Fold 6,7-dimethyl-8-ribityllumazine synthase.
Amino acid sequence: MAEAPHLMIVEARFHEDIGEELVRGAAAEIAKAGATYEHFQVPGAFELPAAIQYSVKSMDFYSGRRRFDGYVALGCLIRGETTHYDTVAAECARGLNDLVLRHTLALGYGVLTVENREQAWARASMAQKNKGAEAARACLEMIELKRQFRLNTR
């Protein structure tokens, strides 16, 4: 029987209250699955890919930490008055997808891209859609898929 998955939750803190709610949902979903996690924070969504890259590359040099089986990227981008939103949203998604494909990672994408705080809360709230839980579920499903292909999840 395979060891329970161990995940990295990386949370963009730019909208702290929304990020915390996404993490609550992800953590509950991971616990429900009998898995474990470690939680890390970065300033904003643009930094999410770098944090995961740091983790992946650190395993090349340091084996004192348990390797992550999967990654859950959480955060929130709310459109403002400039095109900054579009740039950060696109680069965050591109950076995460590049990591998934380059390193064969199981990743759950829980970065909200919304027009306002009301839309963000509708997607983050534990009482509503909680995209953090959905991202954790997606990550766990991808870990299982990797195991079916006998790909190294560590």
User: Anything to note?
Assistant: The chain has five helices and four strands. The first helix runs from residue 16 to 32. The chain has one domain: 7-149.
